[in-house]
Amino acid sequence: MSDLLRLATAGSVDDGKSTLVGRLLYDTKSVLADQLDAVHRASADRGLSTPDLSLLVDGLRSEREQGITIDVAYRYFATPKRSFVLADTPGHVQYTRNTVTGASTAQLGILLVDARKGVIEQTRRHAAVLALLGVPRLVLAVNKIDLVGYDESNFKLTAKEFTTHANALGYADSDVLTIPVSALVGDNVVERSANTPWYTGPTLLEHLESVPVEPDPHHVPFRFPVQYVIRPRTPEYPDYRGYAGQIAAGTITPGEEIVVLPSGSRALVERIDTPDGELTEATAGQSVTLVLSHDLDISRGDLISAADNAPAAVDEFEATLCWLADKALRPNARVLVKHGTKTTQAFVTELSTRFDEQKLSSVELPESLQLNEIGQVRIRTAEPLPVDDYTVNRRTGAFLVIDASDGTTLAAGLVGAPLPVRDSFNPGP
């Protein structure tokens, strides 16, 4: 069976992300006939002689009318070699929060630049966000290469500038590939282009089919945020007590010892129940109900963990925030922190640094974090949280910061996650 690659696209407005994704879907024959008919009709209504493949991705009416991507659009396609889950994320700076969402589970990021413009501010911002979120591999698609006459020197200049920036973010040369493409006409997307004889690397699809896939959440310690305690109290199940939720990471089998956090209580997994019957094993992403060897005081928000590799339950920790709200963050702000299925009151006790994603440097003890800024903070919570370091476990190392007054999301948080600042980038005198 083919394996799975999760990828996300990012880039500035009008760089052609949606057209590139549409081209991938179209050329891999992953588009249903009725979808293609709808695209042909919509393109004809616009007076276009060829189908606008971006319409395969920009599904919202508001997106089609504005000609921009607003929401994260997830698309699923497959080739004989591999299956893909692709998140097409917005390019406009005001939708950076959506880019964070789409990239949070990606194993590879595709960044687009317009060959006529090269690497711009938004390119550097998106690369920094991908690096911070731990996306291990990048592809730079130098799009619209046809509009610069398939010029090799133009491509090499853009590739060198981006690779230098990626290196400063911590990416090795082997983790970054630059490809000259034209999403509109299909150069080097699925089929190799005769217009770029100077390019000897793989097409985009060839690379996506062959790039090594990083270990997924199945290969990290077991983590299970409890969402609901099931107590039917019916004549058929008078004493049943099960703990329901979705496995965030790892694998569990009956007979394994678990620990419940933050209490520290221990038990064995007696049974793994699902609506379709019992399981002999359950893995990350599956929604199950765990029945334990004896009753424990467990409630929604607790974390059931592998007993031999459990996280510490702490009420103070350092974290990196991607600030996503118009209202600025200042020291001693009172917020809510949502980690797994638990939400608790918290204080942001200190703003340690603010990251400049353009210069790849940091500002110590900033007065605030503004919209789309990234910074490292210290957080104190009202209740202990069993958090992992984000670099070890992305699912239980991530959290949300929420406005206590109206419930809006203020920031995406990563436990630990040091900012991608390289001393070598600022060598000093």
Quickly describe the structure.
The chain has helices at residues 17-27, 33-45, 61-66, 96-103, 121-132, 152-168, 204-210; strands at residues 3-11, 73-78, 82-88, 108-114, 138-143, 176-180, 223-225, 228-230, 242-246, 251-252, 257-261, 265-274, 277-278, 282-283, 287-292, 303-306, 313-323, 333-339, 342-356, 361-364, 374-386, 398-402, 409-415.
What keyword list fits this structure?
six-stranded mixed β-sheet, Rossmann fold, eight-stranded antiparallel β-sheet, single chain, 7 helices, 3 domains, Elongation Factor Tu (Ef-tu), domain 3, 429 residues, alpha+beta, 34% strand
CATH homology superfamily of the largest domain: P-loop containing nucleotide triphosphate hydrolases
Structural class: alpha+beta
Alpha-carbon distance between the termini?
55 Å
Helical content stands at: 10-25%
What would your notes on this structure say?
- One of its GO terms (molecular function) is sulfate adenylyltransferase (ATP) activity.
- It is an enzyme of class 2 (transferase).
- This is sulfate adenylyltransferase.
- The protein is an alpha+beta fold.
- The protein has 3 domains: 4-210, P-loop containing nucleotide triphosphate hydrolases (Rossmann fold, 3-Layer(aba) Sandwich), CATH 3.40.50; 223-306, Beta Barrel (Elongation Factor Tu (Ef-tu), domain 3); 313-415, Elongation Factor Tu (Ef-tu), domain 3 (Beta Barrel), CATH 2.40.30.10.
- Helices cover 17% and strands 34% of the residues.
- β5, α6 (152-168) and β6 (176-180) form a beta-alpha-beta unit.
- The longest helix is centred in the middle third of the chain and has 17 residues, at 152-168.
- The chain starts with a strand and ends in a 14-residue tail after the last strand.
